[in-house]
Design goal:
It is globular and about 65 Å long. It has 18 helices and no strands. The protein is about 70% helix and about 0% strand. It folds into two domains: about 5-125 and about 280-415, no CATH class; about 130-250 and about 420-450, no CATH class. It has helices at about 5-25, 35-55, 60-85, 95-120, 140-160, 175-185, 190-200, 205-225, 230-245, 255-275, 280-285, 300-315, 320-325, 345-355, 365-375, 375-400, 400-415, 420-465. By secondary structure, the chain is mainly alpha-helical. The longest helix is centred in the last third of the chain and has 49 residues, at about 420-465. Helix 2 runs antiparallel to helix 3 and helix 3 packs across helix 10.
């Protein structure tokens, strides 16, 4: 049996990955057997699924992202934190709380896996399936490009006023919060559509026209979504997804995992840059213990699940209130006075009040969002919903692989939370690259039809006048 070069590299990678994890577990053995066993179950579930999807020919970006998140944020980082008995959200070490938290995580993982198992039909969807972006008129591309140019004017004005091109504070707008949300979540993602359109519609352009359009689109995109200033969730989703779409025939599950592992290695370094005000200064002052970075707030997801469990133990569940606020994120607080704050802020305030936390803009994973709304039933419900959502997104592989790629990559930030901010960004992204272009695509033919009818009527009247 002949083994391909790609398969050989995948086998070598899996062997190295397993050896690394065995060495890691042997060097950091918890002094509490139940703590170790509970983390080991999470480790087995995540590593088993990662290895399984590496060798599948079918595209499984969504599932691979899910299990990579589980490995990194729910096993690797918290296992180190537990070993050193230091959590980034200042919670004290308590083995009972650690085990309870892991039981909640394990329940979520098992329910999600069972949901996927019984809802997935055995079928294959390859990259050569038609992407529905080819059905969109070229006029839509130019129309959205004009909107991007107008947005760019605001961006350049903001850079000039705030001198924010090389700072990590990003772009700010002195408007109502709902308008600011529209600007950052929707308008700033419209340039992404242009790049996707160009990647799947080369045949609609002459070569020189495509080259000029691509150059102008990439310049507009880089200025609007400046890689030096955008948040890591926005940077990771947009840049990685565009890369995957342009090189879609070369990248499968194994290559995506390699990209994630490179990001995993670089994430602490990027974190050091992001948490400094100035990029240039941050690059000149990189000096830190690498493993210590996994005890930072960048890896607070698991610890905030534990904090949420403690919050519910003291104050009780919120009975849908937090979830309602996330779903109706677009309603301004001036119209909804009692609108709940995000769960990340809520748990942050709880930690400030009862522990030594100094910061309330925290992540809050999907698992704890379910727990704070409905308790353990909420964890099961959210796992079921995520499995169903996975199946819905899988269907996009048949007709719109670009949307599937974006949502799959973004999943890591949706899982980390909190739900209110991550859901708002996801909706803005989908509207920008999928819903809005299709709406415009349906409007333009109607406009052209009316315009043609008007021209025919004018021509008929002119002929009648000439005859007379």
């Amino acid at each position: 049996m002949r083994i391909s070069v790609r398969s050989l590299f995948a086998i070598i990678f899996v062997c190295v990955f397993l050896v690394f994890n065995i060495v890691f577990l042997l060097n950091y053995i918890s002094d509490d057997i139940l703590v170790f066993v509970s983390f080991f179950i999470i480790f087995l579930l995540s590593v088993y699924n990662i290895v399984k999807y590496v060798f599948l020919k079918d595209i499984k970006f969504f599932e691979l992202t899910f299990w990579f998140f589980t490995y990194l944020f729910l096993f690797f980082a918290p296992y180190l934190q537990t070993y050193y008995k230091v959590f980034p959200n200042t919670l004290p070490y308590n083995p009972d709380n650690v085990v309870i938290t892991n039981i909640v995580v394990i329940i979520f993982l098992i329910i999600y896996q069972l949901t996927r198992k019984f809802s997935t039909k055995k079928c294959r969807h390859e990259y050569n399936i038609k992407d529905k972006f080819v059905d969109i008129e070229k006029a839509v591309f130019y129309f959205i490009f004009i909107i991007n140019v107008i947005t760019l004017i605001f961006v350049i004005k903001n850079i000039y006023i705030n001198k924010s091109f090389l700072t990590n504070r990003g772009l700010t707008f002195n408007y109502d919060s709902s308008i600011s949300l529209l600007m950052t979540k929707f308008l700033f993602n419209l340039p992404v559509f242009n790049l996707i359109y160009l990647s799947v519609n080369k045949s609609k352009f002459k070569r020189i026209e495509w080259n000029i359009s691509f150059l102008l689109s990439i310049i507009t995109f880089l200025l609007i979504q400046n890689p030096l200033t955008v948040g890591r969730n926005q940077f990771g989703v947009t840049y990685l997804s565009i890369f995957l779409i342009f090189y879609n025939k070369r990248i499968k599950n194994f290559e995506l995992l390699l990209i994630y592992l490179i990001a995993f290695i670089m994430f602490p370094i990027i974190g050091q840059i992001v948490h400094n005000r100035n990029v240039i200064v941050a690059l000149n002052n990189l000096n830190f213990n690498y493993l210590d970075s996994f005890k930072s707030l960048d890896f607070d997801a698991w610890a905030n699940i534990m904090a949420t469990i403690l919050y519910v133990k003291q104050y009780g569940i919120t009975y849908f209130n937090q979830l309602l606020g996330s779903i109706l994120f677009f309603i301004p607080r001036k119209f909804w006075i009692d609108k709940p704050i995000s769960t990340g802020h809520l748990i942050g305030n709880y930690l400030i009040e009862h522990y030594d936390m100094w910061f309330n803009n925290l992540s809050n994973p999907l698992i704890s969002e379910g727990y704070i709304n409905f308790g353990i039933i909420g964890v099961i419900l959210f796992a079921l919903l995520l499995g169903i959502f996975n199946k819905i997104i899988d269907n996009f592989k048949k007709e719109n692989i670009s949307v599937y790629v974006f949502v799959s990559v973004y999943l890591i930030f949706l899982l980390r939370g909190d739900l209110m901010s991550s859901f708002a960004y996801l909706i803005g992204l989908i509207c920008a690259i999928y819903i809005f272009p299709y709406i415009i695509n349906h409007i333009i033919p109607k406009f052209n039809h009316k315009h043609n009818n008007y021209k025919e009527e004018s021509r008929s009247m002119k002929n009648a006048y000439t005859t007379n």
